Amino acid sequence: MRLTVIRPLCPDVEKTQRLQDVLDYGLKGCDYDTLETIDEIEKTDLRGRRLLFAIELGESGINLEYVRLLKSIRLHRDMFDGCLAGIVVDGNSELFTKSVSRHMVFSANRAGCAFLGRPLVEGTRTQQNFKIIAANLQTDNREAFRMSVRELV
């Protein structure tokens, strides 16, 4: 089944490069489409699809297109009927990734989306949350982040 990546647009290329690298690695060989704006998302029938939410956050923890997406999801309660999803949140801070993830999962689930197994991968600025995984895999934190996204897909 084809994957749909919902990646709320972040116009700052500097903030997006790390997540882009992780997605390039994680999605290698996958057949997927990417939706970045709320207009694209609302025009697409997403019901019954496999989804990957990929959200970039700056130091403030705010991505304005993500906020627009969250509003749309909360207003369209059947938007994700029959969907199965995972989520990747990457931030330029040690804060906010978990709270953004929680809001996204809660809202998407209310709109019909299921999140099974370990559906969340969080990348914080220092990626210290990958320290144990990196040690177990005998690699560095960045590579552990990339590998975690690959397992998610």
Tell me about this structure:
This protein has 6 helices and 6 strands. It has 153 residues and is α/β, with parallel strands linked by helices. It has one domain (3-152): Rossmann fold (3-Layer(aba) Sandwich), CATH 3.40.50. Strands 1, 2, 3, 4, 5 and 6 form a 6-stranded parallel sheet that branches. Helix 1 crosses helix 6 (141-152) and helix 5 packs across helix 6 (141-152). The chain is globular, with a radius of gyration of 15 Å. The termini are close together.
CATH top level assignment: Alpha Beta
Integer-rounded radius of gyration: 15 Å
Helix content: 40-55%
| Spatial separation of the terminal alpha carbons | 11 Å
Structural class determined from secondary elements: alpha/beta
Instruction: Tally the helices.
Output: 6
Largest sheet: 6 strands, parallel
- The CATH superfamily is Flavodoxin domain
Describe the global form.
globular
Domain count: the total is 1
- The overall strand count is 6
- CATH fold-level name: Rossmann fold
* Proportion of residues in β-strands: 15-25%
Properties at a glance:
153 residues, alpha/beta, Rossmann fold, six-stranded parallel sheet, globular
Topology:
Blueprint: E1 3-6, H1 13-26, E2 32-35, H2 38-43, E3 50-57, H3 64-75, E4 83-91, H4 97-110, E5 113-114, E6 120-123, H5 131-137, H6 141-152
Parallel strand pairs: 1-2, 1-3, 3-4, 4-5, 4-6
Helix pairs in contact: 1-6, 5-6
